[in-house]
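Dear V.,

Thank you for sending over the compound details. I've combined the ligand you provided, zinc ion, with the protein sequence from our construct and run the structure prediction for the complex. I'm sharing the raw inputs here so there's no ambiguity about protonation or stereochemistry in the SMILES, which I know was a concern on your side last time.
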Amino acid sequence: MSQLENLHKSPQLLRFGDPKLYEVSSPFNLPTEMSLAHQTLQFMEQVTQDMNIVGIAAPQIGILKRIVMFEVPAEHPRYKTDGVAIPMRVLINPSYKPLSDEKNLEWEACLSVPGMIGQVPRHTHIEYQYTDLEGNSHVYEASHFHARVVQHELDHLDGVLYPLRIKNMQTFGFREEVMVSTMFLESRQ
Ligand SMILES: [Zn+2]
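Below is the predicted structure of the protein with zinc ion bound, written out as structure tokens.
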């Protein structure tokens, strides 16, 4: 419980560079720690209240436990989506495996890396599993943007932020600058 007590009354988003973001989070001991999972989720919701987020993982607010929440929008102003919406899911102790070798390259951003974007290779098709807040197990297949969101959020639980996965660092930078420069590059192809 000490991790939660240390949050005081107002948990905050940690930003790129904070060493806690590079740590590996520990699983919830279920069902014993289910109430801890609920409490952690409350803090995550508190921090992202009124923000238009796709997802967040507990380490981003300094709680090193394996829980993430995400919602896949059908359309998004900044991301290439698939037109399919997935309502908010809360994943406790999640894991995934690729269903093929296929990868794709798309833009990502992160609450912990504000104002910036980069192009990240991710598995195109995955299967993921988790326990929900009622203690039920789920297994889903996901492709493209949905699969990307899952991989991005689960990476946080292992201390990996998306900039660490970027292959071409010329695609990483402040959103406005990168958008202008990549439009320039694409126009010359
Ligand atoms: Zn993130």
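A first observation: The mean pLDDT is 91.

Warm regards,
I. M.
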